[in-house]
Each structure stands twice: as structure tokens, then as C-alpha cells.
Design goal:
binds heme C; 2 domains; 227 residues; globular
């Protein structure tokens, strides 16, 4: 297990050494340089998350229901409860800039300022996530904790934390995965694999997801939703 951690931190170090190429010279604000420090007020955020409609889809306390929207979109709404506030802010900026594409969230992200998001993120991140039923799938657990050296898959835990709780290291933000809806997690992993989602630093999640089979994704997402 230690070996995989070392591999994961090696990748991390390599990534940290990369200049922030995509942002440089593009005229866009350097999101990574400002985002993590914007501090929000959870009480103000609670009101704003209601006024700005976030609660309608993500739940009053950030524990969104795992529902379909009636037009075939499954596992739509991710939980925001217990998520790192800096990750919420980064995603909102990515949606707004089109770095992460989702029609609904593009509209939502454009309707709020960074200050609003910081407040809303402070509220949701302070809420307790209500995990799904524990799902002790050995293949999912093994990949999460140890990775697979033969197939070149690093341990997820090496970046996302021992308990999948999410970690922020400097300006690099590894989101919380534990307790997230299984279908949402599977959708994201599939989108990373197809390069439909491309907003991870250095494309790291695309590299990792390319190596995952359908069965790996099923096992990992089920395991994590109950963690
Ligand atoms: C009409 C429904 C709807 C509303 C209202 C809405 N969202 Fe979302 N949100 C979504 C959907 C759907 C996704 C998942 C997108 C995907 O699958 O990539 C999402 C994703 C997100 C994510 C990414 C979470 C992750 O784990 O990566 C964040 C952060 C977020 N929303 C914040 C907000 C905030 C803040 C508001 C209020 C200003 C808001 N949302 C309002 C539907 C909504
Ligand atoms: C080298 C570090 C690293 C490793 C190892 C890693 N990840 Fe990630 N992962 C990231 C980063 C960074 C992000 C945030 C991307 C962004 O900013 O949108 C991420 C995001 C994600 C997301 C999106 C979460 C959300 O709320 O939308 C999922 C799902 C995910 N990773 C699953 C995994 C799984 C499963 C594994 C193991 C097979 C894994 N990751 C291994 C760095 C890593």
C-alpha cells in the first residue's frame, strides 16, 4: 500500500511542478491563485443557497436526493454536504468559464458572484453528509486503498484521503468522494474516461479513469457512496 501512495505522491509532485499553462496568458482570472482563501459566512450562505435556488436541487442541507429529472438524466444532483469549500468554489468557476460543461450549472454559476459562492460553500461544507448504506465491495475497496500496480492505477486514497474525505494541499484540491451518490460518482468517472470532463489539474483524472473498466467504476462508486 505504501508503494502506491508513493506513486500517487510522485504524480502529485510532478503535477505541482507544472506551470499553470492553461491559465497563463489566456486573459482569464487565475482561479487557482485566488480561490482557496476566499472565506465565506455559513449563516449568510444558508440564506443565499435558498434564494439562489441551490437547495432546490442540492437539498436543504446539501444532501441532494438521488433522483432522475424525468428526461433521462440519472444520478443528477451531487451532494455538497461535507464537501471542501474550495472545491465548490473551483467547480463554480470552472462551470462559469466553461472549463467544466453542464448547461444547468452554467446558468447557475453565472447568476452568482464568487463571494456568494464562498458563503454558500461555507454553509454546505459545514453540513453532515448522510452516507448511503455501506457497501463493502472488495474490488472497489482494494482499488481505492491500494490501486493496481500492474495496470498502473494509483490508489485513490493517496490523493482523496484515507476515508475519501477530501484534502486540500496548497492550491491543489482533492474533493471528498465518500458518501457521494453512486450514480453521480459513476457518471463523473465515465466522463473523465471519455474526456467529456477535463478540469482536473494536468488531466490527472482522465489518465486514471482511462484505465478503469466498467466493473471497476461500478465497484468504486458503490463502495465510495457507502464510505
Ligand atoms: C436545477 C438544478 C440545479 C440547481 C438549481 C443548482 N445545481 Fe448545482 N448541479 C446540478 C447538477 C445536475 C450538477 C451535476 C453536474 C454534472 O453531472 O457534472 C450540479 C453540480 C454542482 C457542483 C459540482 C459538485 C461536484 O461534486 O463536483 C457544485 C459545486 C454545484 N452544483 C453548486 C451549486 C450551487 C452553489 C448552486 C446555487 C447557486 C447550484 N449548484 C444550483 C444541478 C443544479
Ligand atoms: C494523483 C491524485 C489523484 C488520484 C490518485 C485520484 N484522483 Fe480523483 N481527483 C483528483 C483531483 C485533483 C480531482 C479534482 C478535479 C477538479 O478540480 O475538478 C479529482 C476528482 C475526482 C472525482 C470528481 C468528484 C466530484 O465530486 O465530481 C472523482 C469521482 C474522482 N476523482 C475519483 C477518483 C477515483 C475513483 C480514484 C482512484 C481510482 C481517484 N479519483 C484517484 C486527483 C486524484
Amino acid at each position: 500500500m505504501r508503494r502506491y501512495r508513493i506513486i500517487a505522491s510522485g504524480i502529485l509532485l510532478a503535477l505541482l511542478a507544472l506551470p499553470v499553462l492553461s491559465e497563463e496568458g489566456s486573459g482569464r482570472p487565475k482561479a487557482a491563485a485566488v480561490s482557496p482563501s476566499l472565506k465565506g459566512d455559513p449563516l449568510v450562505g444558508k440564506l443565499k443557497s435558498e434564494d439562489e435556488r441551490c437547495q432546490e436541487c442540492h437539498g436543504h442541507d446539501g444532501n441532494a436526493q438521488d433522483i432522475e429529472d424525468g428526461v433521462g438524466n440519472i444520478g443528477k444532483y451531487p451532494r455538497l454536504a461535507g464537501q471542501l469549500p474550495s472545491y465548490i468554489l473551483k467547480q463554480m468557476r470552472d462551470f462559469r468559464n466553461g472549463v467544466r460543461s453542464n448547461d444547468t450549472m452554467l446558468v447557475m454559476a453565472r447568476s452568482v458572484s464568487d463571494k456568494d459562492v464562498a458563503d454558500i460553500a461555507a454553509y454546505f461544507s459545514g453540513q453532515k453528509i448522510s452516507n448511503e448504506k455501506a457497501n463493502l465491495l472488495p474490488q472497489g475497496r482494494r482499488l481505492f486503498v491500494e490501486g493496481d500496480g500492474v495496470r498502473g492505477i494509483p490508489a485513490c486514497a493517496g490523493c482523496h484521503g484515507e476515508a475519501g474525505q477530501g484534502i486540500q494541499q496548497g492550491e491543489v484540491i482533492y474533493p471528498r468522494l465518500s458518501g457521494q451518490h453512486q450514480r453521480y460518482l459513476a457518471k463523473q468517472l465515465t466522463e473523465w474516461r471519455l474526456a467529456e470532463r477535463k478540469n482536473s489539474l494536468g488531466g490527472i483524472m482522465n489518465e486514471i479513469a482511462k484505465k478503469l473498466t466498467d466493473s471497476d467504476i461500478e465497484q468504486l462508486s458503490s463502495y465510495l457512496s457507502g464510505l
